[in-house]
């Protein structure tokens, strides 16, 4: 008999609501790390359209490096693994989780712990960077909408740091 | 904060995203077991350590994750230029 997988979430399921920003845990999803020297071959294997510029986002696919992409899909989705081809398609669904930050103060809250010039980031845009010493994948989807993907074991700290920044921000002039 | 130009991302990124990785252009000997102890010591430990213009490896570890090379002034800490790994010494 197969064991039933148990997923425990290291951050609260309830969104944290502040004036100007809401921080919430996104639903679990499928994630794959894609590596290949030949992007066209990787496109052929996966059927995905791959952005070629680092930071660029096409649909749910992000170009992370010159030979590295991340793609996401609803939980339970599948992707061809490209066995035998010179590509690497690795399931990393459970490695990370995603927090969403939405609202007019979202950029300022992220800027509290991130050395990027967050308010001036274009969108859509995604890149690895750091937040309070923790590596994250920061994505901007709209003027007021960001997601932060982080490895699970760092998530409780990231949640604490973000909600503390958001709470502090409520006391600052807009 | 110091800003470093990543030649792969092709933009200025905060220094916190990068890791230093030692002097650049030090080729690993093709046949290590043919080396004398002195030659092996020179490869492992002996570095130029200049005062001024220094060729060094950096890694955009919290970004595109690529290694690249940089010329940095060890006195002023100013980056003169950065270029991709594999390109000739500049
Ligand atoms: Zn880079």
Keywords:
heterodimer; A: 174 residues; alpha+beta; Gyrase A, domain 2; Alpha-Beta Plaits; six-stranded antiparallel sheet; five-stranded antiparallel sheet; 3 helices; 36% strand; B: 90 residues; mainly beta; Folate-binding fold; two-stranded antiparallel sheet; 1 helix; 10% helix; 37% strand; globular; binds zinc ion
Brief overview:
With 174 residues, chain A is α+β, with helices and mostly antiparallel strands. Chain A contains three helices and eleven strands, in the order E-E-E-H-E-E-E-E-E-H-E-E-E-H. The two termini of chain B are 25 Å apart.
Description:
The complex is a heterodimer of chains A (174) and B (90). In chain A, strand 1 (16-18) and strand 2 form a beta hairpin. Chain A has helices at residues 39-46, 106-111, 155-169; strands at residues 16-18, 21-25, 29-35, 57-58, 61-65, 68-74, 88-91, 96-102, 125-131, 134-142, 145-151. Chain A folds into 2 domains: 16-28 and 94-169, Probable tRNA modification gtpase trme, domain 1 (Gyrase A, domain 2, 2-Layer Sandwich); 29-91, Alpha-Beta Plaits (2-Layer Sandwich), CATH 3.30.70. By secondary structure, chain A is an alpha+beta fold. In chain A, the strands form 2 sheets. A 6-stranded antiparallel sheet of chain A has the order 1-2-8-11-10-9. In chain A, 17% of the residues lie in helices and 36% in strands. Chain B has a single domain (3-26, 38-84), classed as 2-Layer Sandwich (Folate-binding fold), CATH 3.30.2270. Chain B starts with a strand and ends in a 6-residue tail after the last strand. The radius of gyration of chain B is 15 Å and the shape is globular. Chain B has a 4-stranded antiparallel sheet with strand order 3-4-5-6, with no helix packed on it. In chain B, strands 1-2 form a two-stranded antiparallel ribbon. Chain B is mainly beta. Classes of the chains: A alpha+beta (174), B mainly beta (90). Zinc ion is lined by residues 6, 8-9, 60, 63-64, 66 of chain B.
């Amino acid at each position: 008999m197969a064991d039933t997988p148990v997923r425990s979430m290291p951050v609260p399921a309830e969104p944290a609501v502040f004036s100007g920003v809401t921080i919430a845990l996104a639903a679990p999803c499928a994630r794959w790390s894609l590596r290949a020297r030949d992007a066209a071959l990787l496109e052929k294997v996966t059927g995905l359209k791959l952005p070629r510029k680092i930071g660029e986002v096409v649909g749910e696919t992000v170009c992370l490096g010159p030979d590295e992409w991340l793609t996401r899909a609803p939980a339970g989705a599948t992707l061809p693994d490209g066995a035998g081809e010179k590509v690497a398609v690795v399931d990393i669904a459970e490695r990370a989780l995603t927090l969403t930050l939405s609202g007019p103060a979202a950029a300022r809250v992220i800027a509290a712990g991130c050395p990027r010039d967050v308010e001036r980031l274009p969108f859509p845009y995604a890149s690895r960077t750091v937040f309070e010493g923790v590596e994250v994948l920061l994505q901007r989807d709209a003027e007021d909408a960001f997601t932060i993907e982080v490895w699970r074991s760092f998530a409780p700290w990231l949640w604490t740091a973000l909600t503390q920044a958001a709470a502090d921000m409520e006391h600052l002039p807009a | 904060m110091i800003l470093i130009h990543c030649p792969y991302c092709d933009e200025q990124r905060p220094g916190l995203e990068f890791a230093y990785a030692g002097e650049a252009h030090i080729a690993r000997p093709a046949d290590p077991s043919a080396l004398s102890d002195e030659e092996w010591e020179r490869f492992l430990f002996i570095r130029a350590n200049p005062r001024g213009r220094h060729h060094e490896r950096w890694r955009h570890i919290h970004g595109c994750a690529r290694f690249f090379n940089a010329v940095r002034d060890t006195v002023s800490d100013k980056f003169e230029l950065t270029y991709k790994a594999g390109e000739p010494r500049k």
